[in-house]
Amino acid sequence: MKTLPCVEIDPAGEAAGVVLWLHGLGASGHDFEGIVPLLELPRVRFVFPHAPARPVTINAGIVMPAWYDILRLAGGEGGAEDEAGVRASAHLIEALLLREEQLGVPPHRIVLAGFSQGGAMALHVGTRYPRPLLGIMVLSGYEVLVRTREAEQTAANRVTPLLACHGRLDPLVPLARGRGAYEAHAHGRPAEWHEFPIAHEVSLDEIAAIRGWLHARFSPDGAP
Question: 175 in the Ramachandran plot: left (φ > 0), alpha (ψ -120 to 50) or beta?
Answer without folding.
Answer: alpha
